Amino acid sequence: MGPLHIVWFKRDLRCVDHRPLLEAADCGPVLPLYVVEPELWQQPDSSARQWAFCRESLGELRASLASLGQPLIVRVGVVEQVLERARRQFGIAGLWSHEETGNGWTYARDQRVAAWARQHAITWREIPPFGVTRRLNSRQGWARRWEQRMAEAISPAPKRLTPLAGLDPGPIPTAEALVMAADPCPDRQAGGRSQGLAVLESFLEQRSRTYQLGLSSPNTAGVSCSRLSPHLSWGTLSLREVVQRTRQRRAALTAVPWRRALQRFDERLHWHCHFIQKLESQPSLEFRELHPLTAGLRSGEGAGDEARLAAWAEGRTGLPFVDACMRSLIASGWLNFRMRAMLQSVASYQLWLPWRESGLHLARLFVDYEPGIHWSQCQMQSGTTGINTIRIYNPIKQGRDHDPEGVFIRRWLPELADVPAVHLHEPWRMDGATQERSGCRLGVDYPEPIVDWVAAAATARDRLWSLRREQGFAATADAIQQRHGSRRSGLRASSRRSRRDLPAADASVAQLSLDLA
């Protein structure tokens, strides 16, 4: 057996629209490889629910590759060591993969792999998987380049892969084998490309009809939203596929409202790469505040309060709609974007928790965790970017607006099932007799609010706006906007505006990013 072309699969678990696989197959025998990295799965943003989705996707990928002639090879260990064993055993004609904008751990790992490849004079060809640009100097023209990439032809799977005799495909380990913490997620979406294609089909052919009307309420979002986010995050579908299929479907429709709904979805697909590009251009935003003057903002009163963090993380803040959203997320690994934003906002403002700590908890819960989108959103919703509107969610208003009958609350908070509708969103207003009749005693069956959320929000708002008025804040914000801001929106840094002057449109632009979830 001569030198092999190794195709290293990461978060691109498919054969179709996988240019590294197709181009490597044109060059010679291919060893399709996935390395299960135990250290990666012990990182604080990783979870067993994510591995379960990935594991299911790997099983289907292995079968798809086997139908082409050579099944996926899975090895457990350190990537450089696995590659070095392959080099010594077979020789490596080339290393192929997609570019990855992952977390800080994968960034450092890729640097080590690049150093190993240089040491052994092995060419590592990394191909962009979607619209993010490496070593980007300017955002000017970024949207045009994104459109060009999305318009590229979908790469077919190779017609055939040369079978590699004598190679054990290797087991795909369980979460238990990787010593991962137990993480029950009974309502999790299933992984695998066939699942992704079915979700895409059902959305474009049927569910997208109610996309605009149903994406904000957790009662309707599970059906009306695309539900494609985990398949995009783990690469069982490519973003290019979704964009092109969406546009084809929209062109075939005659119903104007439905066409308009798909147009809105199409617009939101742009924001997928817009936010990942921020992390690609500035990897430190996973760990450090984008605007340096917001560093340490929550290091005073309330910062690191383990009791508040635990209450928020477990859905027992005493704010019913917040707790219902958290418990739903724990059970399913998914939540619509507006509710994600609300959870982060409440943690950051009413509870005054550092965004990194609350963000790590959400990262572990999201099966569709995408580091570039996630950390950009955590900072946006906590006011540390310096360029976005300060958006402090009113959790009671959100509940009344998006769950007016309390259906969602009663489903996820059974202890409130018999609370009268008039008190459901604010159970602390019940008198003792009403509590007894409804079987919900505050402080016993359901907690009192752990903070005075109205006063806490006012204090947070004053602190943020006071900071934004400090000398030098606006100039730094303008520099951040120049580096990271969307050229499509035409917005300048909001730090120069007073609260009275902020138009509603600013807030809506800031909310587009994950509504495709």
Secondary structure topology:
Blueprint: E1 4-9, H1 19-25, E2 30-36, H2 48-68, E3 73-76, H3 79-89, E4 92-98, H4 104-119, E5 124-127, H5 142-150, H6 193-205, H7 211-214, H8 221-224, H9 229-233, H10 239-252, H11 256-281, H12 306-314, H13 320-332, H14 337-350, H15 355-365, H16 371-382, H17 395-402, H18 407-412, H19 421-424, H20 432-438, H21 453-468, H22 473-484, H23 504-510
Parallel strand pairs: 1-2, 1-4, 2-3, 4-5
Helix pairs in contact: 10-11, 11-16, 14-16, 15-16
What kind of assembly state do the chains in view correspond to?
single chain
Helix and strand composition category: mainly alpha
What ranges have pLDDT less than 50 throughout 5 or more consecutive residues?
489-517
Reported for the largest beta sheet, the result is: 5 strands, parallel
What does the average pLDDT come to?
A: 92
Beta-strand residue percentage: 5-15%
What's the count of strands? 5
Series of secondary-structure elements, N-terminal to C-terminal: EHEHEHEHEHHHHHHHHHHHHHHHHHHH
Give the helix level as a range of percent: 40-55%
Rg: 24 Å
Shape: globular
Whole-Å distance between the termini?
45 Å
Number of helices: 23
Main β-sheet, spatial strand arrangement: 3-2-1-4-5
Write a brief caption for the model.
The chain is mostly helical. It is 48% helix and 5% strand.
Structure characterization notes:
With 517 residues, the protein is mainly alpha-helical. Helices cover 48% and strands 5% of the residues. It is built from 23 helices and 5 strands. A 5-stranded parallel sheet has the order 3-2-1-4-5, sandwiched between helices. Strand 1, helix 1 and strand 2 (30-36) form a beta-alpha-beta unit. Helix 15 packs across helix 16 (371-382). The longest helix is centred in the middle third of the chain and has 26 residues, at 256-281. It is globular.
